[in-house]
UniProtKB/TrEMBL annotation:
Catalytic activity, EC: 4.2.1.51, 5.4.99.5
Organismal lineage: Bacteria, Pseudomonadati, Pseudomonadota, Gammaproteobacteria, Oceanospirillales
Residues marked Essential for prephenate dehydratase activity (site): 270
Pathway: Amino-acid biosynthesis; L-phenylalanine biosynthesis; phenylpyruvate from prephenate: step 1/1; Metabolic intermediate biosynthesis; prephenate biosynthesis; prephenate from chorismate: step 1/1
SUPFAM superfamilies: ACT-like, Chorismate mutase II, Periplasmic binding protein-like II
Catalytic activity: prephenate + H(+) = 3-phenylpyruvate + CO2 + H2O; chorismate = prephenate
Protein name, UniProt field: Bifunctional chorismate mutase/prephenate dehydratase
Residue ranges constituting the Chorismate mutase domain according to the UniProt record: 9-101
The Prephenate dehydratase domain, residue ranges: 101-277
Compartments it resides in: Cytoplasm
Length: 370
């Protein structure tokens, strides 16, 4: 009995010592984070002294910092989790230099907002807009510094509206985000006690969940709306309605998650691009997006890809879209590894000059870190 009591006392002393050590570490962290914020302010002052029109946010620099943090991490937190923590610290420090405004497909609660927060951190000034073209227009007009647009889903493929906007827009791609998508059936509290007759969502999640819906709600009317957040808003007001959306959307409405993870494929990921007006320098691990217009002649696509192949450029994505200039005339979007200033890619791009193939660089950016 006395041995058990002594052991409890030792554990209590040990726990008390651990808590004291945690408090001491927290104090050290607070001091170091404050010092980092002060250094960020001094960086801002130095930049402004050199150039009043300086650009504070440098995607290539942020990517290099994040990669360094992940390389130095020894656990027990994963590299990705450590990177997320540093993303928030960097976001808050950058906001001291200059708040970043970013447009995305709204309203609040969409996957686009979730992707924006993942990439820029919680200190970003989010600007929800009604459509993907509105994101492009906000960036082009200088009303926001950046925009976030979906470009491809691993289940349903390309987001054609985004690709079409690149044809006529002068924005630059300057970043990317890969966001795992987990669709949930969402509705009013107690909605499962009533028959669900209508299910609202954006067309993409409806397609991503078609198998599950066919089994569980074959008679329900599937209603495509402008965004997942709009779907949740409608479901909140509909006694016999539900929505398909991410859990993030529940933060903004009086609803519950009725059934989690109803997507047909568990490995469901959406690729987003960050668009802006400034070019991004090399980070050491980059991607470049090319827009090519070729004449409708035999072997035209081969002539487009041949210089890239000969210079050892890895093509990561190829997409074609109607040019809208004339019937059966297409443009090609070619995503490759490397920065447009890198030797091999720069040499390949030079070969298109004066040829029958028009190639425009839509932007180079750091490959996604997390």
């Amino acid at each position: 009995m006395n041995e058990s009591k002594d052991l409890d006392q030792q554990n209590a002393l040990s726990l008390d010592a651990l808590r004291k050590r945690i408090n001491a570490v927290d104090s050290e962290l607070l001091s170091l984070i404050s010092e980092r914020a002060q250094l960020a302010q001094r960086v801002a002052e130095a930049k402004l002294a050199e150039d009043p029109d300086t650009v504070f946010y440098r995607p290539e620099r942020e990517a290099q910092v994040m990669r360094r943090i992940m390389a130095l991490n020894e656990g027990p937190l994963s590299d990705e989790e450590m990177a997320r923590l540093f993303r928030e610290i960097m976001s808050s420090c950058l906001a001291l230099e200059q708040p970043i405004s970013v447009a995305y497909l709204g309203p609040n609660g969409t996957y686009s907002q979730q992707a924006t927060l993942k990439h820029f951190g919680g200190a970003v000034e989010g600007v929800p807009v009604a459509t993907i073209p509105d994101v492009f227009r906000q960036v082009e007009a200088g009303q926001v510094a950046y925009g976030v647009v979906p470009v491809e889903n691993s289940t349903e493929g390309a987001i054609n509206q985004t690709f079409d906007m690149f044809v006529s827009s002068n924005v630059r791609v300057c970043g990317e985000i890969f966001l795992p998508i987990h669709n949930n059936l969402i509705g009013r509290r107690g909605a499962l006690d009533e028959p669900i007759e209508r299910i609202y969502s954006h067309s993409q999640p409806l397609a991503q969940c078609r198998g599950w819906l066919a089994v569980h709600y074959p008679q329900a009317e599937l209603i495509a709306v402008s965004s997942n957040a709009e779907a949740v808003r409608l479901a909140e007001q509909d006694k016999n309605g539900a929505a398909i959306a991410g859990s993030h959307a529940t933060h903004y409405f009086d609803v519950d998650i009725l059934v989690r993870n109803i997507e047909d494929l568990a490995s469901n990921v959406t690729h987003f691009l960050v668009i802006g007006r400034e070019p991004v320098g090399p980070s050491g691990d980059d991607r470049t997006l090319l827009l090519a217009s070729v004449h409708n002649q035999p072997g035209a696509l081969e002539r487009l890809l041949e210089p890239l192949s000969r210079h050892g450029i890895d093509i990561t994505h190829l997409e074609s879209r109607p040019s809208r200039v004339q019937p059966w005339h297409y443009v090609f979007f070619v995503e490759v590894k490397g920065h447009c200033e890198d030797g091999p890619l720069a040499q390949a791009l030079e070969e298109y000059e004066g040829s029958m193939i028009d190639v425009r660089v839509l932007g180079s950016w750091p490959a996604a870190v997390i």
